[in-house]
Amino acid sequence: MITVSVEPTQNEALALVQGAINAQVARLELALQAARSRVLPFEQKYRIPSSRFLAQFVVEDLEGGEDEYLSWAGEYRLYLRLQEKLDTLKKQRVVFAE
Questions:
Q1: Would you state the pLDDT for residue 41?
Q2: Which of 18, 39, 67, 85 is deepest in the core (most CB within 10 A)?
Q3: What span, in angstroms and rounded, lies between the C-alpha atoms of 25 and 44?
Q4: Who contacts 77 (Cβ-Cβ below 8 Å, separation ≥6)?
Q5: Helix (H) or strand (E) holding 5
Q6: Cα separation, 82 vs 76, whole angstroms
């Protein structure tokens, strides 16, 4: 966890930093929802979770071939990166310096 310290006299700065973090969290949550909505049709079509697909399948395993494989893999990797960023950002704290 990273802690951002702000001098007690800098209430406005504290509010700005916390507001920026909250806004980024909201953007990441929306992006994560969008990425999930693009991954879900693949999971439904092939009846497997994306994590299993990425670990076990190769291009030849999908009826859609290379294009479908690359699309699914790319979307799922994007989803994972967004989730990681969101998790990291949610762990941040903004506090007054002591």
A1: 95
A2: 39
A3: 28
A4: 54
A5: strand 3-6
A6: 10
